[in-house]
């Protein structure tokens, strides 16, 4: 009944602006069309996305399990090695972070770009997630802010040593790890 009323409102032009959209819908529910600024790249993106959609139709039956069994880990390791070969060793210790030059300006630019993309693709009130669209796991955790944190990193909740209960969501993990979590 409500859906019929909505259709009648849209057809009559009386529907609120939020219900109407001048945005061009993409090839799937909530999927915007490619907008790279280059017609050839847009075509390639749309063609590859179509290929992914087609592959998903036949995937569960026979192709993906074989590929995952034999190629996923070796390909993942190869890509990681290639990426790491191109990186310069800056002497970072495990989990060490350093403030990068112009880091604040880069963060502001990322936020502004993401904001512009969301406003361009979706109507207000109907935004969809811009990244990591699927949750694969969640664990209960405790975040401990240590007292030996460098002064320049003591901001927000990291300003003073404390312990916080948390739920951590893991998403798009390339492969399982051997790490176990205590409950």
Overall strand count: 4
Q: Spans of 5+ residues with little confidence (pLDDT < 50)? A: 1-5, 14-20, 173-183
Structural Rg: 23 Å
Distance between the termini: 47 Å
Strand order of the largest sheet: 1-2
> Which structural class do the helices and strands define?
alpha+beta
For the residues shown, what is the average pLDDT? 75
Helix content: 40-55%
Please tally the helical runs, counting DSSP H or I stretches of 4 or more residues: 4
Beta-strand content estimate = 5-15%
Helix and strand pattern? HEEHHHEE
From the spread of the alpha carbons, the general shape counts as extended
- Main β-sheet: number of strands, strand sense, barrel status? 2 strands, antiparallel
In short:
By secondary structure, the chain is of the alpha+beta class. It has helices at residues 2-12, 39-58, 63-86, 103-121, and strands spanning 25-28, 31-32, 137-145, 162-170. Helices cover 40% and strands 13% of the residues.
Summarize the structure in words.
The chain has 183 residues and is α+β, with helices and mostly antiparallel strands. Among the domains are: 29-86 and 113-123, no CATH class; 135-172, no CATH class. It is 40% helix and 13% strand. The chain is built from four helices and four strands; from the N terminus they run αββαααββ. The protein has helices spanning 2-12, 39-58, 63-86, 103-121; strands at 25-28, 31-32, 137-145, 162-170. The strands form two sheets. It has a two-stranded antiparallel sheet. The longest helix has 24 residues, at 63-86. It is extended. Mean pLDDT is 75; it is low at 1-5, 14-20 and 173-183.
């Amino acid at each position: 009944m409500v859906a019929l009323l909505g259709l009648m409102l849209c057809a009559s032009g009386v529907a609120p602006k939020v219900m109407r959209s001048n945005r061009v819908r993409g090839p799937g529910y909530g999927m915007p069309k490619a907008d790279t600024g280059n017609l050839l790249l847009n075509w390639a993106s749309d063609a590859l996305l179509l290929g992914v959609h087609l592959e998903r139709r036949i995937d569960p039956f026979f192709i993906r399990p074989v590929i995952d069994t034999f190629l996923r880990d070796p390909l993942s390791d190869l890509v990681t090695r290639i990426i790491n070969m191109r990186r310069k060793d800056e002497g970072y210790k495990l989990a060490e972070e350093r403030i990068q030059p112009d880091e604040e300006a880069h963060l502001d630019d990322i936020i502004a770009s993401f904001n512009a993309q969301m406003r361009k693709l979706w109507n207000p009130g109907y935004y969809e997630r811009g990244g990591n669209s699927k949750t694969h796991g969640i664990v209960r955790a405790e975040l401990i802010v240590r007292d030996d944190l460098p002064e320049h990193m003591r901001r927000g909740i990291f300003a003073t040593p404390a312990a916080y209960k948390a739920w951590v969501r893991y998403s798009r993990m390339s492969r399982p790890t051997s790490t176990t979590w205590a409950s």
